[in-house]
Amino acid sequence: MIDAREPISTTKSSAATRRPKTPVSTSRTAMSSNTNTQRLAVRRVFSNANQKPFDSVQWERRTAEITDDSNKVIFKQENVEVPKSWSQLATKVVVSKYFYGEQNSPERETSVRQLIHRVCRTIANWGVADGYFSSKDGEVFYDELVWLCVNQYGAFNSPVWFNVGLYHEYGVGKNSALGNWYYNRKKGAAERAPTQYEYPQGSACFIQSVDDNMESIMHLAYSEAMLFKYGSGTGTDLSPIRSSKEKLSGGGRPSGPMSFLKVYDQVANVVKSGGKTRRAAKMNTLKDWHGDIEDFIDAKQREEKKAWALIEQGYSGSYNGDAYGSVMYQNENLSVRASDDFMQAAMDNREWWTRTVVTNQPLEKKNARNLLVKISEGTWTCGDPGMQYDGAIQKWHTCKGTDAIHSTNPCSEYVFLNNTACNLASLNLMKFKRENGTFDVERYKAAIRIYITAQEIVVDNASYPTQIIAENSHIFRTLGLGFANLGSLIMSYGLSYDSDEGRALAGALSSVLTGHSYEQSAEMARVQGAFKGYRDARCSGVSKPVAKDNVASMLEVIRQHREAVEAIQPSQEFNNLKDEARTCWDRALVLGRKHGYRNAQVTVLAPTGTIAFLMDCDTTGIEPDIALVKYKLLAGGGMLKIVNRTVPEALTRLGYSAAASAAVIAHIEKFDTIEDVTEGTQVHKSGLQPEHLPVFDCAFKAHLGQRSIHYMAHLKMMGAAQPFISGAISKTVNLPNGCSVDDIMDAYVQAWKMGLKCVAIYRDGSKRSQPLNTKRTNEGVNAKSDKAATGDQLKNLEAEIVRLREVAGKPLRRRLPETRTAITHKFDIAGHEGYLTVGVFEDHQPGELFITMAKEGSTIGGLMDGIGTLTSLALQFGVPLEALVKKFAHQRFEPSGFTKNPDIRNASSIIDYVFRWMAIQFIPGYREANSPNRGQQELNMPGLMEELKKNLNRPVPGLLPLTEEAENLIRSNPLKTTPIRTVTSFTESISHFQLDAPTCPNCGHITVRNGACYKCLNCGESLGCS
Fold it and tell me: Could you tell me where in the chain the CATH 3.20.70.20 domains are found?
């Protein structure tokens, strides 16, 4: 066995394998507290004893390159060695995120096998040194772990890839200053690590605490800053801080948690996560009885409205722009910790009393339902606060004897005691589906054993940001194994995400995951002993435990998991998985009673942001697919639109012939949707039977489609998995932009009734929006909008869209009269003056455009003249102005800058200004929706306002998806359009999914929602705790 402290010899299969400059010595050769000679036996399932695991795949050399939204290269590494089966996206994410060393330096990693070797070899060597298995079994463990990683069956959380093995394989940090805190098992206490990488940080999730004194309050700011510095996220419950409504013993009133929350918010803002430009990941919770609960609920909504005011004054409204950067609470997620009593009081419309923190005396009387409505209104407006359900959290708490659970990590999947940490890993479910369609549960269990063992080995060999977290991590040893690609797996079986069978599959797989993890944890307890907190409830930071041990509460929760198996929906196809789940939990209970458990928790369902790209997953965590098409990176640049690989599998499963499947796929390639598409009077049939449409529903509505997954389907899927997960589930519960506050409140109530622990709801486009004008009844509940009026409006919109499409479908040129009315407008963009002249038809709609630059050279003048001519031809051939505005507004190039037009404070280019000005003048509703100065007088043009008033029901640009039709009109032969086309960026491919998604701080592309955070589909950046 190769020791981590010995040089690594170069092999023929990898000329790129690195060699440390000098062998690294370490004082922790055998620090296991285990004196038993028993060891874990590791059986080969994936690897071959006669073949090196790296040789199980073919390798090739590639260039990893990332470009921003203007195609400027922001990262490039040439001649990197990667498995041939890995996608280009996986390549550039792994190379840019996880390869060690400065670019173009001898220390820079150049091969994926280097990365996987340094991590897997180090963990395997730790396992042998700590007595988990023998040297022989350690080699088998190494081979199995390497095989799983290189074949994309599973992946650790980002800190492991960042840090593990740098010291032991490369000698990094050998002469560095002291590192973070680690638990010295010989001394039985936490101490500072002798160097910065000998005990690397391996956890992504942390929960911290705060007490009601200034020292503790300020120390939390320090410890959070240190966590953000190393790229991790943290959560804290602020309920121990006295409210601003209470009194101090010496007179006066406390500041309350909201004032200190501002301090924590700004610390997170200043200390970017991992030293990068992305915002830090942070969660703060407050309990429903706290005196400042109403201020907490309203806090983010108030700040959101301040940001709106700044945007209206011309400040940038981007994710990292001046508007949101100038207001509070933008660097954290907020959640209300709601008890069952509070939720029941809200259901009964009863009063709710807040209480004092120290004396627990009644403080203020409020209405529980009104508070729940306020929570829902805040979520409607800006996505916060979310909700955490204390009853469910404490019911499934394995360590009740120590203390209650008070908070979570930022994405809410890690739910445990204060001052603890969790290292995560995830399995790629699609890898366990056999060619014959069955799910290989034995290989699934084998992968669970390998990863849960690897995660356990990391616990005592890692460092932590504070002494108390290092001590408690040793005491409780919480782990977070999960899975990804569930959405793809369900679709591949020809099942709907919103189906009983789909939920049965999710429940069974979750149950096997946790049941077998606890089974392996009990096996590790046999070898290493149970976690210290199992038989001794004492821990750091808890002055007086509730009980002397956690044996009874742990076994009670294991029994609850076992009992929940019987509630899994019956399914003829997946009954074998349900049977396997029963067996796993029975064995876990028997072994646990005998040996205890090595870990207090073993599973979570994380959003799997960056590591999902590493594993080439089509869907992340427990999420459904976001769309039926994906954009494949091409080696020479650009992207190719392709149909998801699970769609053909699903069609075959549903009984479609090869020819029928090909026709359906061709329809998807052409229209980006599997639904029938109507163009004018022509209906394009997809060939899919109507009863099969739900199988292909996605999280977001397709551009030309009408269907998407209902929010109740998201909640039901979480409800199917939650009874089998040690922690909680990080998931986006998507609601459409047009949903009401009532819909959000209903989602929160249903989540509580289903027994979920945490839920974060997001209304598409909630950023930079005004709340719906809803009526409040005497009971304090927002009334539904007038359905009849809404129906009439929709009919008018649909009729108008049909009329516009019929007009746009005829390539006939409408010429202006010889003598026509025209208007001229002078503009100034950062000192560059010009004139716009628009000629209008008899109905006062624009028919021609002339652009004249005052002092520019012939090049810009000629280009602007050409743009004017093309625009004139497009308008005269029936291309809607809405389509042109949608295409050309917000184009970015010089000259750009501030203007003198109060309706367009800042123009990103001349073309941007031209088309936004035309939209303001000629598209009803555009000014109101987009202009910061809504009091500006309309064009004083005789007859114009009268004509526009006739068309008040015309849809605004965002409601009229005519971009494809507009493009077809200017092609010479629209009927021969190729169904597969390339696009220039991920921004173009996903811009219609979420109206307000922030841009990626790394590459500038539009991100998509992922759990409580966002992820970038271009470079793999995670705007959360990865």
Answer: 53-197+408-613
Q: Name which of 1011, 1021, 961 is nearest 386 in CA terms.
A: 1011
Residues forming a β-bridge with 154:
427
| Residue 754 binned pLDDT confidence (cut-offs 50, 70, 90) | very high
Q: Using CA atoms, how far apart are residues 927 and 925, in angstroms rounded to an integer?
A: 6
Report how far apart the first and last C-alpha atoms of the chain are (Å, whole number). 33
Structural contact between residues 764 and 734, judged by C-beta atoms closer than 8 angstroms: yes
- The residue annotated as part of the active site, out of 120, 205, 399, 411, is 411
Cα distance between residue 122 and residue 889, in whole Å: 53
For residue 714, give both structure tokens: 């998201």
**Dihedral sign of CA atoms 755, 756, 758, 760 in order:** negative
Element (H, E) at 726: none
Q: Are 539 and 546 in contact (CB under 8 A)?
A: no
CA distance 768 to 1006: 16
Phi, psi for residue 529 in degrees, rounded to 5: 95, 155
pLDDT, one tens digit per residue, over 912-959 is: 899 999 999 888 877 766 655 444 444 444 454 454 444 444 443 333
| Unique residue bearing structure tokens 């290189």 | 150
Catalytic residue among 331, 409, 419, 901: 409
Active-site annotation holder among 144, 377, 413, 882: 413
Question: How far is Cα of residue 229 from the mean position of the Cα atoms in its chain?
Answer: 21
Q: Kindly state the DSSP code that residue 538 receives in the 8-state scheme.
A: -
Signed CA dihedral, 643, 647, 651, 657: sign only: positive
Instruction: Concatenate the DSSP letters of all residues of 85-127 into one string.
Output: TS-HHHHHHHHHHH--S-TTSTTS--BHHHHHHHHHHHHHHHH
Q: Any idea what DSSP says for residue 776? A: B
Rounded Cα gap, residues 762 and 333, in angstroms: 12
Write the pLDDT tens digit of every residue in 767-809.
753 333 333 333 333 444 455 556 666 766 777 676 666 655 5
Number of H helices, E strands in the chain: 32, 30
> Is residue 409 among the annotated active site residues?
yes
Count CB-CB contacts under 10 A for residue 445.
Answer: 21
CATH number for the domain whose boundaries are 53-197+408-613: 3.20.70.20
Number of Cβ atoms within 10 Å of the Cβ of 426: 28
User: pLDDT averaged over the chain?
Assistant: 85
Active site residue 224: no
Are 64 and 49 spatial neighbours (Cβ–Cβ below 8 Å)?
no
CB 641 within 8 A of CB 633: no
Q: DSSP 3-state assignment of 743?
A: helix
Which phi and psi angles does 111 have, rounded to 5°? -145, 145
Alpha helices in 482-574 (DSSP H): 486-492, 500-528, 532-535, 551-564
Q: What is the DSSP letter of 280?
A: P
pLDDT tens for 90-106 read 999 999 999 999 999 99
27 forms bridges with which residues in the sheet? none
* Residues contacting residue 594 through CB under 8 Å, at least 6 positions apart: 522, 526
Strands 333-338 and 282-287: parallel
Instruction: Find the angle CA(330)-CA(331)-CA(333) to the nearest 5 degrees.
Output: 90
